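Page 37, continued from 36.
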């Protein structure tokens, strides 16, 4: 029987440092200019790493997790810009479907389709989705949320009653900073919940290797020129805390 080993990724150290600190019996391995942390969380073997930003960086990192550390499932956690108008800062989106919005090999292949794979949409694992849903719903219980994030920080980032959403996450090597970019994406994928720069690349690699995965994103901004949140501070004080609590509640 294959031993269960959970890979946990984020793009930035601020998104994943808290999870690294959960590891017991921690060891470090430096491969490809990245540091992989192995150990156990609640007696479950895990490998934690931050990939750096972008599709190539994240694809290289998850490939190493699969080939060198033999992970059997993958959790990716971090921040994203909101596309759907109902999303607010502090909400969480679980990516049930992932697409690379900047993939275009037409006319050889249909726009957005990954060449030679015949797919444009990659789906997260249904069991992992349910596990994350349960964890997030527990965290968002009002009393629990105030135990892990200070009232001052919740007020500062205008987080009152954060909500959980599921749906399409779009990924690409492009930082969204104005409404025109959002409108262009929505014209192709009106169901998009949020946008980021790694998830769909990780999803493709996991699909090709047969590794179950789930992509979790905390909404940090509106992906346009009106975004005013201090990104680094939000990541440390909110997104990082969400990641810690989600992992703790999944791995019991």
């Amino acid at each position: 029987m294959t031993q269960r080993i959970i890979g946990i990724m984020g793009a930035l150290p601020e998104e994943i440092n808290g999870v690294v600190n959960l590891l017991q019996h921690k060891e470090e391995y430096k491969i490809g200019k990245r540091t992989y942390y192995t150990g156990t969380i609640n007696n479950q073997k895990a490998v934690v790493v931050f990939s750096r930003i972008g599709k190539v960086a994240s694809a290289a990192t998850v490939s190493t997790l699969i080939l060198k550390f033999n992970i059997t499932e993958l959790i990716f956690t971090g921040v994203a810009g909101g596309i759907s108008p109902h999303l607010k800062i502090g909400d969480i989106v679980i990516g049930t479907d992932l697409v690379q919005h900047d993939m275009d090999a037409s006319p050889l292949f249909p726009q957005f389709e990954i060449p030679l794979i015949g797919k444009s949409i990659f789906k997260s694992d249904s069991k992992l989705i349910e596990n994350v849903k349960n964890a997030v719903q527990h965290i968002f219980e009002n009393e629990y949320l105030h135990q892990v994030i200070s009232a001052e920080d919740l007020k500062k980032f205008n987080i009152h009653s954060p909500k959980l959403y599921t749906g399409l996450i779009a990924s690409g090597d492009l930082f969204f900073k104005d409404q025109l970019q959002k409108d262009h994406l929505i014209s192709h994928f009106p169901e998009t919940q949020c946008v980021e720069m790694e998830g769909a690349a990780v999803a493709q690699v996991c699909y090709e290797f047969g590794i179950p995965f789930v992509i979790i994103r905390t909404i940090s901004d509106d992906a346009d020129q009106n975004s005013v949140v201090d990104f680094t501070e939000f990541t440390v004080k909110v997104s990082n805390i969400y990641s810690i609590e989600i992992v703790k509640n999944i791995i019991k």
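The chain has a mean pLDDT of 93. Flag for discussion at group meeting. The CA atoms of residues 104 and 110 lie 7 Å apart.
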